[in-house]
Write a structure and sequence with these properties.
It contains 3 helices and 9 strands. By secondary structure, the protein is α+β, with helices and mostly antiparallel strands.
Length: 182
């Protein structure tokens, strides 16, 4: 009898832990993400725990990133601005599901100013999870050869920024890459 009770408690604990460790994630390019569209995305994806939003076309505010709540879900966003390697198609964000709380956010990274709106990363920890979603938006390949050096420089700069973030993560942290690689 005691063995069955222990087995039952172990199985219950296993189910509880597997639900906490199991993540539903997706990468999504909304093409534009005003506040109404963000609420629609949140309503359309209630079971997703982490969503990388790439190509939001939201502009940068005074801060390197913005933190807001969309239907009681934490949303971190880095908007685009007029810089060397950005355009109005930029803007990236991470929308967290109900498993995550603001106090679990340990650090947020954004790329240098010339790449503003091309990337955001956020290390988030809980008792059982240690993840770092990284959303990055690479520029589309240019049609003209004369624009190729600028394109390659932007791609290399984004990749270097991602490498910098990954180098700063502890080994216990699992990176989640959300990319629009064009």
């Amino acid at each position: 009898m005691a063995l069955l009770l222990i087995m039952g408690l172990t199985y219950t604990l296993f189910l509880w832990m597997s639900r906490l460790l199991h993540l539903h994630i997706c990468s999504y390019n909304p093409l534009s993400a005003n506040e109404d569209r963000l609420h629609d995305i949140s309503a359309e994806t209630p079971n997703f725990d982490v969503i990388g939003l790439i190509g939001t076309q939201q502009q940068r505010t005074l801060e390197a990133y913005d933190k807001t709540w969309i239907d009681r879900r934490l949303y971190l966003h880095s908007g685009h601005s007029k810089r060397e390697h950005t355009n109005r198609s930029g803007g990236v964000g991470i929308l967290f599901g109900s498993k995550f709380r603001e106090q679990q956010v340990r650090r947020v990274w954004t790329p240098p100013a010339k790449l503003q709106g091309r990337g955001i990363a956020c290390r988030t920890t809980s008792r059982v999870l240690d993840i770092c979603p990284i959303a990055a938006y690479y520029p589309p390949r240019p049609h003209r050869n004369v624009d190729m050096p600028k394109y390659l420089a932007a791609c290399q700069a984004i990749t270097n920024w991602i490498d910098t973030v990954l180098d700063q993560l502890p080994k216990s942290c699992t990176p989640l890459l959300f990319l629009d690689g064009n």
